[in-house]
Write a structure and sequence with these properties.
- The protein is mostly beta strands and 133 residues long.
- The chain contains 2 helices and 9 strands.
- It has a 5-stranded antiparallel beta sheet with strand order 3-8-7-6-5, with no helix packed on it. A two-stranded antiparallel ribbon has the order 1-9.
- It starts with a strand and ends in a 14-residue tail after the last helix.
Amino acid sequence: LACTGCDTNAMHLKFPGGKSFETLPRRKTDGSIVLKTSKYSIEAYMKKGEVAAVKRENGIERQYRLKCSQCGLCVGYSPSSFDKPLKNVYFLPAAVKYISNAAPEAVASQNEMEAVKTSKKHFSSKTLRKIRR
């Protein structure tokens, strides 16, 4: 997935057989793309953003925002705080785009790759189990 703001690679996903980006489920409340972290091989290149409170029909939803490591655009959020393992991550459809079979080097320039390497410290590699400071 790449950020639509600057084309920086936000996440590299490996889909299991028969799955594709187009088949990922959507959240009914806001149309976000739902990614269950336990089902995919993941490398994330994002940094943590602010915590937001969003009004929903059933009350207030707390969102722990995820930002592009290069331009700072909010590309998604998690319902879990950054100090807990992330089970689901929701991506905003207008903020990300899918680039088929692209390695991070194919998407990002050398300067962007430096930002990606720096931002990797915010995620445990391939599991998204915890965002670090």
